[in-house]
Write a structure and sequence with these properties.
498 residues, alpha/beta, 6-stranded parallel β-sheet
C-alpha cells in the first residue's frame, strides 16, 4: 500500500514558514510523503493550511480555499483537511462551524500534535479541535523538512511582549519565550555540519531576546557566538524592534565577520503622533539615531523597513513626516503597506479611519519616493566586486538570459552571467556589478572567481536523491529583503512587523 501524501499551504510571516517546515517534518516522520510538485489541487491525501490572521480578509481567503476543496473531499472520502496557525488560534470552533468538512484545527502552540490529531479524526470520524493556550514545544525542537539545503531559519524566540495597536500577534502567539543559547547554537552547529552556510535568526521581536532570561545583552552575545562557528558563512536576523536595538548589537554586527551588514528595521510611521497611537515605544529622533549609528559603524550596511500608510488619524502632516524619514534614512528597500483593519486589534475601532482614496494617493507617493531612493542606492553598487551566494529560484528569467542569481552579503539580489564551470546553489561566485535597477543588480562580465562550498555539496546531494523520493512542494518562502516591485495595495505588515 502506498504512503499517504500531504501538502502544506503557508500564509503569512517567516515564523509561519518556519512552522510549516516543522509540520512537514512531523508528517514525514509519521509516514506521510510529500505530494509531488505540480500535483493537482485536492489530489493530496492530507492538505494542511498554516494560516495568518494579520490581514483583514485572511478569513475570507481561507474559507474560499476550503470551499474549493469541499467537493473534492466528497469524491475522496479518505482525504483529510487540517487548519493551523494564527487564524486557527483566533477562530477555534468557528472554522468547523463554517467548514464542517475540516478534520483538524490546531493552534500556534501545539503544532507538534498534528499527526496525532489526524489519526484521531480518522479513527473517530469526527473533527478534532485542539488549541493550546501556551507553548507545548519550541518549534525548533520538532522534526523538520527544510526547504533549502544551504540556508536555514533558526528560531530563537516565540511570542511578543509589545502591544502595538495594529497587531494581533501577541494575542495569538503569546508572551515572548526565549530559547536557551546553548540549544540555539547546538542547532546552528548541526545545520552547518549538514552543509548549511547561511542562517537567519528568527523571532517576533528578535533583538528583545534575553528579556525572559534577565540578560539585556543576550542577543549581541548570541551574534558573537555564531561568529565562532566554523563553516558558518552568513548570519542574518529578523525582525528587530527599534526600542530594543542597543549599541552592543551594532558593535556585534560590525565586529563579527560572518554577521552580514544588513538590517531590517521596521519604522511603521515617521510621525511621533502616529507612533504613539500605534503604541510604538520610540519616536522619529530615536529611529534616525539608530540608523546614524549603524551607518557610522557599517557604512556599507543595507537597511530595509516596513511602513504602514493610512493608519487611523494620520494627517497629511503626519504622512509628510514619514516621507521625511524615508528621505533621511535612505532605505535600500521598503515593504510599504496600506493600513487594513485587523479584527480584534484596538486600531480597528479607532476614530479617524482614512478614506481609501486618500490612503491610495499617499501610498503611491511613498512607493514612488522609495523606488527612486532604492535605484539611487543600488547605482552606488556599480563597480563593486561582491561575493554572491548562488540561490535557487530567485531569478525567474535566468534560463532565458543564461544567468544565475544570488544574494550579495547585504542581501541585495544579483543576476550574473553563468560561469563556464558548474555552479550550484550554495556556492559562492565573485562578480563585478555593471548595472543597477531599483530591485536588483546585474553583473554582465565573466565571474572573477567561483568557490565550491559544502553548502553546494549539500544541495547537490539532496538533488541527486533517487527519483522515487518524494519531491518538495514549495511553501511560498518570502525572499528576505527582496520586496515585490509594487506591493499589493491592500496588504498589511507581516507578523514579524516589530
Amino acid at each position: 500500500m502506498s504512503a499517504k501524501t500531504y501538502e502544506v499551504r503557508t500564509y503569512g510571516c517567516q515564523m509561519n514558514v518556519h512552522d510549516s517546515e516543522r509540520l512537514s517534518g512531523l508528517l514525514e516522520e509519521a509516514g506521510y510523503v510529500r505530494a509531488p510538485e505540480g500535483t493537482a489541487e485536492g489530489d493530496a491525501d492530507v492538505v494542511v493550511f498554516n494560516t495568518c490572521a494579520v490581514r483583514e480578509n485572511a478569513d475570507n481567503k481561507l474559507y474560499g480555499n476550503l470551499g474549493r476543496l469541499a467537493p473534492m473531499k466528497t469524491k475522496r472520502p479518505g482525504m483529510q483537511i487540517a487548519v493551523g496557525g494564527c487564524l486557527a488560534q483566533k477562530d477555534r470552533d468557528t472554522i468547523v462551524k463554517r467548514a464542517p468538512w475540516v478534520d483538524v484545527v490546531f493552534g500556534t502552540h501545539n503544532i507538534g500534535k498534528l499527526p496525532v490529531l489526524l489519526e484521531r479524526a480518522r479513527v473517530q470520524e469526527d473533527a478534532q479541535v485542539e488549541i493550546a493556550e501556551s507553548l507545548e514545544a519550541f518549534p525548533s525542537t520538532l522534526p523538520t523538512r527544510r526547504e533549502s539545503a544551504y540556508a536555514a531559519w533558526v528560531s530563537i524566540s516565540v511570542g511578543c511582549n509589545n502591544t502595538c495597536t495594529f497587531c494581533i500577534v501577541p494575542a495569538l502567539r503569546g508572551k515572548e519565550k526565549d530559547r536557551r543559547p546553548g540549544d540555539i547554537l547546538a542547532e546552528v552547529e548541526a545545520l552547518v555540519a549538514e552543509g548549511v552556510s547561511e542562517i537567519t535568526l528568527l523571532g517576533q521581536n528578535v533583538n528583545a531576546y534575553g528579556s525572559d532570561m534577565g540578560d539585556r545583552e543576550a542577543f549581541s552575545k548570541l551574534l558573537r557566538a555564531c561568529g565562532q562557528i566554523e563553516g558558518l558563512e552568513r548570519v542574518r536576523f529578523t525582525s528587530p524592534h527599534p526600542r530594543d536595538f542597543t549599541d552592543d548589537v551594532i558593535a556585534a554586527m560590525a565586529e563579527t565577520p560572518n554577521v552580514m551588514h544588513q538590517l531590517h528595521m521596521p519604522l511603521q510611521s515617521g510621525s511621533d503622533t502616529v507612533l504613539k497611537a500605534m503604541r510604538r515605544s520610540y519616536r522619529q529622533e530615536r529611529f534616525l539615531g539608530i540608523i546614524e549609528k549603524v551607518r557610522a559603524a557599517m557604512p556599507d550596511a543595507a537597511i530595509s523597513t516596513d511602513i504602514i500608510v493610512g493608519f487611523p488619524g494620520e494627517t497629511e502632516e503626519d504622512f509628510e513626516q514619514t516621507m521625511h524619514v524615508v528621505r533621511e534614512a535612505r532605505f535600500a528597500n521598503a515593504f510599504t503597506f496600506q493600513y487594513s483593519k485587523r479584527p480584534g486589534t484596538p486600531a480597528a475601532t479607532m476614530d479617524g479611519q482614512i478614506p481609501k482614496e486618500v490612503v491610495q494617493a499617499r501610498y503611491e507617493r511613498l512607493v514612488a519616493l522609495q523606488e527612486e531612493i532604492s535605484w539611487e542606492e543600488n547605482k552606488k553598487q556599480v563597480g563593486r566586486v561582491l561575493e554572491v551566494m548562488v540561490a535557487e529560484g530567485e531569478g525567474r528569467k535566468d534560463d532565458a538570459t543564461r544567468r544565475l542569481s544570488g544574494r550579495a552579503p547585504d542581501n541585495r539580489l544579483v543576476h550574473f552571467t553563468k560561469p563556464d564551470e558548474d555552479v550550484r546553489p550554495g556556492d559562492v561566485v565573485t562578480v563585478e556589478i555593471t548595472y543597477a535597477a531599483p530591485h536588483h543588480l546585474l553583473a554582465e562580465g565573466a565571474a572573477k572567481a567561483v568557490r565550491r562550498t559544502a553548502a553546494g555539496d549539500a544541495w547537490e546531494k539532496r538533488n541527486a536523491a533517487p527519483a522515487e523520493k518524494p519531491q518538495g512542494v514549495m511553501l511560498g518562502i518570502p525572499r528576505i529583503g527582496a520586496p515585490a516591485p509594487t506591493p499589493a495595495p491592500t496588504a498589511g505588515p507581516g507578523c514579524g512587523c516589530d
